[in-house]
Amino acid sequence: MVTISSPPSSYRSTVVAVPPGPAVRRENSGEPADRRPDTGGRSDPAAGPTPRRYHGLDALRALLMCLGIVLHVGLCYGDGPWLWKDARSSGVVWVVTTSIHIFRMPLFFALAGFFAAMVYARSGASKFAVQRFERIAVPLGVGWFVLFPLVALSIVFAWTYGAVDVEAAGGVGAAMALALQHMPFTTDWSDAGPLHLWFLYDLLLFYAAALMLAPVCGALGPLRRLASNALDALVLGSWRWLGAALAITAATLAMLQMRVAGVETEESWRPNLPLLTVYGLWFLIGWIGWGRREVVEHLQRGWWWRCALAAVATVAAAYAILAWHMRLERGAPPGPWLFFAAQLLSVVSSWFGLLGLVGLCERFLRRESRVVRYFVDSSYFVYLAHLPLALAVPAMLRTWDAGALLKCAVAVCAVLGALLLVYQLFVRHTVVAVLLNGRRPRAGAALRGGA
Fold first, then answer.
1. Which of 24, 74, 179, 359 is most buried, most CB within 10 Å of its CB?
2. What are residue 96's DSSP bridge partners?
3. What is the reported pTM?
C-alpha cells in the first residue's frame, strides 16, 4: 500500500537554522564581489601605491558562501534539528556543520565591512548608497519573493516523498511522481521568515548606519586624528596585541548576550539587537581594517600558525557548544562556565580564522586566475539559489543505502554542480549577472540568455 503523510506545519516559517544542537537553530551568507581595484596604504587612494585588486579576499568571501551550502546540506545528515532529516545521521557531519557555523558569518561580515569601506572611500556616500541598493536590496527583495515559495515546496516535497513506499509505488521515479501528484502546491505566507537571505537584510542595516555615522566621524577634526592614531597603534603598531585583546573581549561580551551557546537564529524581519551587535562588531572590524589595509600584507607572514590556532579553537568551541546543548537536552543545567567557554572559544576561532585565512588567501591567491574568478563571480548567485536544492536533493537520495557522510558529500556536489550549470547557461551573460556582480553581459548574450 502507498501511504502519504503531510509535512509538519512548521515548514511554513522556513527559517534557515543551523546546528549547533537540538535546542538552537541558525543559519548563514554572501555579498557580491566589489569590482574595482583598491589601493594599499592608509592615505588617499590617489596618493597610494599602484591600485590592485584583493583577489585573495574575493576568493575567501566566495568560499565562505559556498561553505553555507555545505552547512545546509549537512544539516540533513547531522544529529541536530533541521527542516528535513535523512534517516541516517553522522556525528562527524554534526561537528563539521557546527564548526562551519562558528566562524563563517563573523568572517563574512568582517570582509563585508572591509569592502564597504573601500567602496565608500572610492565612490562617496551617494554612489555607495546606489551601489549597495542595486547589489544587496534588489537581490534581497526579488530573491526572497522567488525563493520563499520554492523553499516551502521543497520542504513539502521532502516530507511527502519521504512518506511514500518506494517499492509499492514501483520504483524511485514513480515514487517521486506520486509525491509530486499528491503534494500541495500552495504557499502559506502568514509566517514568512527571511530564509537564508537574512544576511542581506543585516547588511542593509549596517550600510545605513555607516552612511549616518561616517560623515559624523569625518567632522570630528582633531578628535578624529587622535582616534586614527590610536587605531594605527592598536592595529599596526607596538600595541597590536592589546588591540587584539580588546577586539576579542568586545566580541566575547557581545556573544554572552546570546540565549544559547553559539549564535542565535535570525528568525524574523524584526531586528535582533544582540545578533546585530555581534555581527555589527565584526563589520566594524572590517571597516577599520580598510583604513589600515597594509595589515593585509603583514598577515601573509605567519598565516600558518594563525590558521592552526583557529582550527584548534574551532574544534574546541564546537565540542563545547554541543556539550552545552546535550546537557540541556538531558534536563541538566549546562552551567555558566561551559557557556562562557563556548562563546570565548567561538570568538577566538573567528578572530584567528580571519587573520589566518586573510593571510593565506592573499599570499597564494593574490594573482588573478580565470578559475578563481569564475568561482568568485558565480558564488553569489549559487548561494542565493541553493536552499531549495539543498533540501530536495538529500530527500531524493533517501533510499540510497550509503552512509550519511558519503550521502552528504554526493548531495553537496550535486547541488553545486546543478547550480553552476544554471549559472553558466542562464545567468553568467545576462542582466542577472550585471545586477549581482556589476559586470556587463557579453554583446548579445542578454538577449540570448534572457533576463
1. 74
2. none
3. 0.87
- Partners of 52 in beta bridges: 38
Supply the DSSP symbol for 34: P
How far is Cα 285 from Cα 33, in angstroms, rounded to an integer? 19
In 3D space, the residue among 12, 28, 10 whose CA is nearest the CA of residue 264 turns out to be 28
Question: Hey, is 52 helix, strand or coil?
Answer: strand
Cα–Cα distance, 338 to 332 (Å, whole number): 12
Are the C-beta atoms of 85 and 256 separated by less than 8 Å? no
Nearest in space to 342 (alpha carbons), one of 282, 252, 281 = 252
Alpha-carbon span 39 to 360, nearest angstrom: 19
Q: Which amino acid is at 319?
A: Y
Distance, in Å, from the CA atom of 150 to the CA atom of 166, rounded to the nearest integer, reads: 24
Helix (H, G, I), strand (E, B) or coil at 201: helix
Burial of 406 (0-12, 13-18, 19+ CB in 10 A): middle
Strand partners, 38: 52
Nearest to 421 by CA among 376, 451, 384, 382: 382
Integer Cα distance of 419 and 147 in angstroms: 14
3-state helix, strand, coil in the chain (%, to 5): 70, 0, 30
Contact 184, 157 (CB under 8 A): no
Distances (CA, A) of 416 to 75, 274, 297, 386: 16, 33, 32, 8
According to DSSP, residue 134 is labeled I
Q: Is the peptide bond before 333 cis (omega within 30 degrees of 0)?
A: no
Distance CA 140, CA 194 (A): 9
Report residue 347 CA to chain centroid gap: 16
What is the residue-wise DSSP string for 359-411?
Answer: HHHHHHS-S--HHHHHHHHHHHHHHHH-HHHHHHHHHHTTT--S-HHHHHHHH
Measured CA to CA, the distance from residue 332 to residue 121 in angstroms comes to 52
Give per-residue pLDDT as tens, 390-449.
Answer: 999 999 999 999 999 999 999 999 999 999 999 999 999 999 999 898 754 454 443 333
| Listed residue (245, 219, 221) closest to 234, CA to CA | 245
Handedness of CA 288, 294, 297, 302 (dihedral sign): negative
pLDDT in tens, 355-407: 999 999 999 998 889 999 999 999 999 999 999 999 999 999 999 999 999 99
**How far apart (Å, rounded) are the C-alpha atoms in residues 318 and 296?**
28
Domain boundaries, the chain: 19-38+47-184+192-449
